[in-house]
Amino acid sequence: MSEVKQRGRRRASSQATHELSSVVGSRREAIAAERAHSSSSTTVAQLLRAGASSGAGQKVGVAMAATGLVLAVALPATQASESLQMETTTASAVETVVTAGAEVPITFAAPEVHSALNADGKLKQTLQVNASKVTPQASKGTLSAPLKTLAPSSPFGDRISPITGQVDEHHTGQDFAVASGTDVLSAAGGTVTFAGWHQYGGGNRVVVDHGNGLSTSYNHMSSITVKVGQKIERGDTVGLSGSTGASTGPHLHFEVIVNDETVDPMGWL
Ligand SMILES: [Zn+2]
Fold it and tell me: Which of 35, 66, 148, 170 has a CA-to-CA distance to 200 between 20 and 30 Å?
């Protein structure tokens, strides 16, 4: 535990004292806590190992990492008479140290846990930073399919244009084959920022701003069912698929736009 240093100690609030009010005084209980909070298992394991290697001085280490809050606890027997002190931080990478008397009971109130299946929650969490800073691991699965059934056809990236035959045309979106008249669904909640005819080949096009530098667009639609400024939810219909604009047949050209640059939509679906 020597590497874990106390930073900016302060006296614990009465709430914290209350939350730290039932004992986790043994390694066994710490392990139980670890099982209950698997997201913090690494930190707990490290603390337990540290406790084991440093002898009897360290009694327990429990950490919880959820919603970005990390709380690590150490109970050095040598500081048994010290009053409860703690420090908290929202930086998930930083360990927080609490020292307390060896017999001071400690417990944790479980914070709200985000479900990995909750794409809206995941996107909201992901977009706490600008979309350009979102890692591929974090972006995957945060947008919903823009059609009920996805049949990917032409992928994002460089290709030979089906219209001009030009080599190395940059395809700015992912195409999905779909019959005309099929509901086109917003990939996430947001505000409609464009709904109309796209002069550069998109035909009937809708753009939805999801905040923090992330937008999506839906192109070649036969009709548009939203208006600029309209707030919409994930899965709302923005129009019906079609083959308007520069299109050789019915399909949806779906774009993911990060700070005005298109990126591979498959990295977000
Ligand atoms: Zn396309």
Answer: 148
If you measure from the C-alpha of residue 222 to the centroid of ligand 1, how many angstroms do you get, rounded to a whole number?
15
Determine the distance separating the centroid of ligand 1 and the alpha carbon of 150, expressed in angstroms: 14
Residues 6+ apart with CB under 8 A from 199: none
Measured in Å, residue 168 CA sits from the centre of ligand 1 at: 14
Q: Which helix (H) or strand (E) holds 170?
A: strand 169-171
For 96-115, how does the pLDDT look when each residue is reduced to its tens digit (9 = 90+)?
444 445 554 444 443 344 44
Task: Identify the structural domains of the chain with CATH numbers, from first to last.
Answer: 1-113 (no CATH), 119-267 (2.70.70.10)
The residues near 49 (Cβ < 8 Å, ≥ 6 apart) are none
**C-alpha 28 – ligand 1 centre gap (Å):** 57
